[in-house]
Design goal:
This protein is an alpha/beta fold and 239 residues long. The chain has helices spanning 52-59, 82-89, 107-118, 122-135, 151-163, 181-196, 208-213, 235-238, and strands spanning 13-21, 27-36, 41-45, 67-72, 75-76, 92-95, 169-173, 200-204, 218-222, 225-229.
């Protein structure tokens, strides 16, 4: 892991009066105001269909708002050209609920893709990918083609790929949904360590156990609106 990043006082993601709808459809969210401090950690909650995935999509620049402004890394995304958007996306790690792996490649090669895009040497790639695959308990499956892996294994490959570049922002959509408690705990430890080193983390989840086990504030979407709830402290934390 690298040394801890310098944390600036400027929000890393800032949304002001944001609205979103698809084509001529109804609004998915209305007048969303959200400011994420650089180096913060939040859970993202809400019922299915509340807009969690859409909010994450705005953060990782797959969507632009139909109203209001979204600023990421200090830049208004409405005025960013294609090259600028591509450079910003390289600074963001995303764990998609549907994985979006390259199914014809091995687990190892999927995780290595972001490093190869950067032009990193194969010796360093081998070291980093091997270390991360051991962490998510995929060392024995490293050479398996992804279309032969189980859902839980694919999820861990997707997580390893998202964090291998040590992103400035990590957005994860139900990252522990298909793994057992032991692997889920290891994944959370990985996210917490990245956050300690300066990565801003947002985890979308339906798991109340996850929210109560880890004391981080919660972004909640309901009725097209957003609320922020403080961290839920565990009893032994309060003692």
């Amino acid at each position: 892991m690298p040394l801890q990043r310098e944390i600036s006082g400027e929000p890393i993601v800032d949304m002001l009066h944001v609205g979103l709808h698809y084509d001529d459809g109804p609004e998915i969210m209305t007048d969303i105001n959200l400011s994420l401090e650089n180096g913060s950690f939040h859970f993202l909650t809400g019922k299915s269909g509340a807009g969690k995935t859409s909010l994450l999509s705005l953060m990782y620049l797959a969507l632009k708002p139909t109203a209001g402004t979204v600023t990421v890394f200090g830049q208004n995304v409405a005025f960013a050209d294609r090259d600028e958007m591509a450079l910003m996306r390289r600074r963001i790690g995303v764990v998609f609920q549907e994985f979006r792996l390259l199914e014809h490649l091995s687990a190892y090669d999927n995780v290595a893709v972001p490093l190869r895009i950067r032009g990193m040497g194969e010796k360093e790639i081998k070291r980093r990918v091997g270390e991360l695959l051991r962490w998510v308990d995929l060392e024995k499956s490293r050479d398996k083609i992804c279309n032969t892996l189980s859902g839980g294994e694919k999820q861990r490959v997707a997580i390893a790929r998202a964090v291998i570049n040590r992103p400035e922002i990590l957005l994860a959509d139900e990252p522990t949904g298909s793994v057992d408690d032991d692997i889920g705990g290891r994944i959370m430890k990985l996210f917490i360590e990245l956050n300690r080193l300066g990565t801003t983390v947002v985890i979308a989840t339906h798991s109340q156990d996850l929210i109560t086990q880890y004391p981080y504030p919660r972004i909640h979407l309901e009725n097209k609106m957003l609320k922020i709830f403080p961290a839920v402290r565990r009893k032994f934390d309060e003692a």
